[in-house]
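Step 1: inspect the first sequence and its tokens.
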Amino acid sequence: MECVRQQFPAVSVDANAIVREEGPLRTAAGVSSGLDLALSLVREDMGERIARDVARQLVLFYKRPGGQLQYSRQRELSPAGRSALQSLQRQIIQQPDAEYSVEAMARMVMLERRQLTRLFAKETGLSPARWVEQTRLTIARSLLEDGRKPPKVVAAEAGFGSVRVLRRVFQRHLGVTPAEYRKRFGQRH
């Protein structure tokens, strides 16, 4: 950023802007914000409804709140790694509201806790608890996008147990509340 200011002193640099519009000129802060810029152009050319549909299909926020805060993208829920691990992951995806402590998961696949933790780290790059949390977050995001279920039901079905826990996980991973997420991504019925 400082380099841009030095090389182009006549250019106005806004360090916190995701997308900047000045007359006919449009700029973006980086690769992810390039997607925001593209979405902004879709909105200008095709209208808000189509831009929202495109954002939903690309799993992007229609308009990211705040500055250049980056959101982790929703991944498809697909098991990874060895077959024993995949079987456990499929069970978690199908029943996210069950109890999945590391000890319980280790018993399910007949491994020691440390073995399971090493296997998860090697095969997914995550701890077992982090994988479960991210899976539950993905499920909650999908339920919120559908827009039909109240937050209490979303929290329970995704395995968070309470709206308070759901809210805390959303804030930690996405920097927004579930309500804000639904407002940006939820389907209008």
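Step 2: inspect the second sequence and its tokens, then contrast the two.
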Amino acid sequence: MGIFSRKKVAEPSGPVEWLIVGLGNPGAKYLYTRHNSGWLTIDNIASKYNAEVKRAKFKSMTGTAEISGKKCLLMKPTTMMNNSGEAVVEAMNFYKIPLSRIIVISDDVSLDIGRMRIRKKGSDGGQKGLRSIITLTGSDEFSRIKIGVGAKPHPDYDMAAWVLSEFTEKEKPEVFDTFCRAAEAVALMVDGRTDEAMNKFN
């Protein structure tokens, strides 16, 4: 369930209109790592909207929430990061969701802790989960929220070891505040106000 508490409420009715996808890796050893910033943001969104993300579907843990008046599927792909596109494509095809109604949340080593960046489209920037989604959908034209996790401590530091390291106690308050701001951004984006979200949070 993650680190955010919630109370159970009835699931929203009607068809799923948006996919909100947080990238990460399954397994307790990865839970609070930098690479799991997408998962942790989904936990924050679920807490904010009293949703439960625990149903196994589309190679993910899923749940639904009503955000800005729209029924959204919250997804935490369990494929391992590098195969995240498999989960996204399954859900897209099932609900017939276009790329324009998908928001992907991921970590970004080019951004400092406490920073986030919203983009309407773009390259994967070296993030292999985004790369998988772009490859399997055949397009980079989906919105994404990048959560800053900081650069490697020094050039020789192994990148895999860095993104799979946990946030320090000093970093946690700032990064968890970023997860909260990302949840606010999602609400604006689902409401068709992505430019406003970019101006406010980038």
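Step 3: confirm your contrast with the notes below.
The longest helix spans residues 172-190. Residues 62 and 69 are 19 Å apart (CA to CA).
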